[in-house]
Amino acid sequence: GQNIDQPTEMTATEGAIVQINCTYQTSGFNGLFWYQQHAGEAPTFLSYNVLDGLEEKGRFSSFLSRSKGYSYLLLKELQMKDSASYLCAVVDSNYQLIWGAGTKLIIKP
Amino acid sequence: GAVVSQHPSRVICKSGTSVKIECRSLDFQATTMFWYRQFPKQSLMLMATSNEGSKATYEQGVEKDKFLINHASLTLSTLTVTSAHPEDSSFYICSARGKGDTEAFFGQGTRLTVV
């Protein structure tokens, strides 16, 4: 079967750094997405990785290791507005998105 | 990025009635549209995938006669929840993908409450 694992909830302090991990087992791999979703809203795109390595975009970075079936999203200089759920999604061999359950990130002052 | 417009954003309906949700790609041709349902504190659950001009492919456990999907053009897909019941109350989200694209773009979502 296909499976995406990510922690259910994480807590971090404003101004700090947090890393949200995602491991996957899917039938094929055609890329991995990270989305941010605030409560009651649709997901918004954060990053897309298809090759191994680190992609940096402002305060957010995303890392991928295809051999390990592993990705992480790194958030720096955390702000209160970063409190949200972060969804990991993998594109499988049929170009379908397989979604993780999401990680709820709580930022404390 | 590309823009996908979903309407309405919120709807309250009486039990037994039907509700139609529209999903439009505003600046690209959406050859594939996805419909998701999301219950509180849960992840997105794919309901069905539709390709323009073809019948939708429903995920296991999703009743195709209850959730009618139409994708008649490259810019519009509709989801009709027929004979809605309170347990159908959920957040429904569409996403659209152009031909050859990997990324799908999301609509704003529709909060359906059945009373």
Detailed description of the structure:
- The complex is a heterodimer of chains A (109) and B (115).
- Chain A is mainly beta.
- In chain A, 0% of the residues lie in helices and 57% in strands.
- In chain A, strands 2, 4, 5, 9, 10 and 11 form a six-stranded mixed sheet that branches. In chain A, strands 1-3-8-7-6 form a five-stranded antiparallel sheet, with no helix packed on it.
- The N and C termini of chain A lie far apart (40 Å).
- The mean pLDDT of chain A is 93.
- With 115 residues, chain B is an all-beta fold.
- In chain B, strands 2, 4, 5, 6, 9, 10 and 11 form a seven-stranded mixed sheet that branches. In chain B, strands 1-3-8-7 form a four-stranded antiparallel sheet, with no helix packed on it.
- In chain B, a hairpin with a 6-residue loop joins strand 9 and strand 10.
- Chain B is globular, with a radius of gyration of 13 Å.
- The termini of chain B are far apart.
- Classes of the chains: A mainly beta (109), B mainly beta (115).
- At the A-B interface, strand 5 of A face strand 10 of B.
